[in-house]
Structure to design on (314 residues):
């Protein structure tokens, strides 16, 4: 008996690694990608939405509804990550103009209607700041029981990137992250402790180049731009491909080791706003609210990611 694919919504801020998450979500047989929603993060909302539309046009994903979400975090201003993703938030290659029509619904409206109408509970995969997801949970308490899980790329057990102890997605909107982590829903988190093991090495570049399709010929320069940015900013010539790992936690959880632990979001902190305080050893004696990834079969991920790129062969 074959299992039905898990309905998922991908909430993202494309973003070099976000577009790879879109591909993995769209081409994982375990998943049914119901919608893509965008959130301000790596770039302003209009730019990240355009990137989603144009990338999906390139990748032949015109049948997936795309809706635009929050223009700024719950409190304060947006900050584009131009150092990492460039002015367009997806620099490195010119993508074709979009032939996809943006949904008339907002991100939260589209998420809510999909979750309300789905016969099976829906999983939300979040690869940007958690603003839209927090608004959904706040505005639609009646839908909580229809949400199977929330799979998040953010934070980390040890370190940050945008700040010494804060990772970009959580740092961008800590109030939203706090709402999500306090929701009582099933939360799976992959942070920098895992994604910094998922490096685009020269061998991975070779495998991408060897696909030699219209898609891979654009993905390679995108990833080269990302590699150059990581080298310049973080002295990491092999950049980490963060966001597809949040997809993989849903499609192939058996490839991970998880710790069920308390996670708190630092909202104040003179130097640590946006830090994920992950209590791996139970020293705070607080309730366990998240499954935090602490191990991953990295080669198995790359086989699946490369297969997703190769799924479009012409
Ligand atoms: C996260 O921040 C963004 O730059 C990436 O797209 C990823 O979601 C990594 O800290
Ligand atoms: Ca992202």
């Amino acid at each position: 008996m074959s299992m039905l694919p898990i309905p998922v919504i991908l909430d993202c801020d494309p973003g070099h690694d976000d577009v790879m998450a879109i591909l993995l979500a769209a081409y994982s047989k375990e998943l049914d990608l119901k919608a893509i929603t965008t959130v301000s993060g790596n770039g302003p909302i209009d730019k990240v939405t355009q990137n989603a539309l144009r990338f999906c046009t390139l990748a032949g994903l015109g049948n997936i509804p795309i809706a635009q979400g929050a223009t700024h975090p719950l409190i304060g201003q947006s900050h584009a990550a131009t150092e990492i993703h460039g002015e367009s938030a997806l620099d490195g290659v010119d993508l074709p103009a979009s032939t996809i029509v943006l949904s008339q619904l907002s991100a939260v409206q589209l998420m809510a209607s999909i979750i309300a109408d789905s016969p099976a509970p829906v999983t939300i995969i979040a690869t940007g700041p958690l603003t839209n997801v927090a608004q959904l949970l706040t505005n639609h308490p009646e839908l909580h029981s229809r949400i199977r899980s929330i799979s998040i790329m953010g934070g980390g057990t040890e370190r940050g990137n945008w700040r010494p102890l804060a990772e970009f997605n959580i740092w961008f909107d800590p109030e939203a992250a706090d709402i999500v982590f306090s929701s009582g829903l099933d939360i799976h988190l992959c942070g920098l402790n895992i994604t910094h093991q998922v490096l685009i090495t020269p061998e991975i570049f070779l495998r991408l180049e060897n696909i030699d399709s219209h898609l891979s010929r654009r993905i390679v320069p995108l990833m080269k731009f990302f590699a150059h940015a990581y080298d310049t900013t973080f002295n990491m010539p092999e950049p980490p491909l963060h966001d597809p790992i949040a997809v993989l936690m849903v499609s192939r959880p058996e490839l991970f080791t998880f710790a069920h632990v308390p996670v708190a979001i630092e909202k104040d902190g003179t130097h640590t706003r946006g830090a994920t305080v992950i209590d791996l050893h139970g020293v705070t004696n607080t309730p366990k609210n998240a499954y935090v990834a602490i191990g991953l079969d990295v080669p198995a991920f790359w086989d699946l990611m490369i297969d997703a790129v190769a799924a479009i062969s012409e």
